[in-house]
Design a protein that fits this description.
Blueprint (H helix, E strand, L loop, with lengths): L2 E15 L12 E8 L7 E12 L3 E13 L5 H5 L2 H24 L12 H12 L1
Antiparallel strand pairs: 1-4, 2-3, 3-4
């Protein structure tokens, strides 16, 4: 099976001044959530949706919604959907692209570029899977 990262898109970007966020001091420096999405309209593609929260210079909060689309050389089936690939491997493949986007965005916005920390998608998937069961 051939799987390819097809596209990456920033869906929504918000850079908020800390004065615009009531609980700014209570928010963690970094937070991420991700979720695979299997649309019924495209039988050979699936998406990984990321929601990112990042404090910038302890003066701003970056909120980012980002999606990465993967394309397969065959139709999606239940076996693939339930496998680790869309839940662990695909987010790990797409994450460096989002990391580079965030770094470039902040640099172009006049901030020092920030390198996002590494994320253990396997551990995150295990935690999410245990909460469901």
């Amino acid at each position: 099976m051939n799987i390819q990262l097809y596209t990456n898109k920033a869906k929504e970007i918000n850079l908020l001044d800390k004065d615009q966020v009531e609980v700014f001091d209570e928010i963690d420096e970094f937070g991420i959530h991700y979720e695979p999405n299997f649309s019924e309209q495209t039988s050979d593609k699936f998406k990984i949706f990321f929601a990112l929260r990042l404090k910038v210079k302890n003066s701003h909060l970056l909120l980012l919604e980002y999606e990465s689309t993967f394309k397969l050389d065959r139709e999606l089936d239940d076996e693939f959907i339930q496998s680790h690939f869309p839940h662990v491997n695909a987010p790990a493949i797409a994450f460096p692209y989002m990391r580079a986007f965030v770094s470039t965005l902040l640099l172009n916005a006049g901030y020092d570029p920030i390198m996002l920390p590494s994320v253990n998608f396997s551990a995150m998937y295990k935690d999410m899977h245990e909460k469901v069961n």
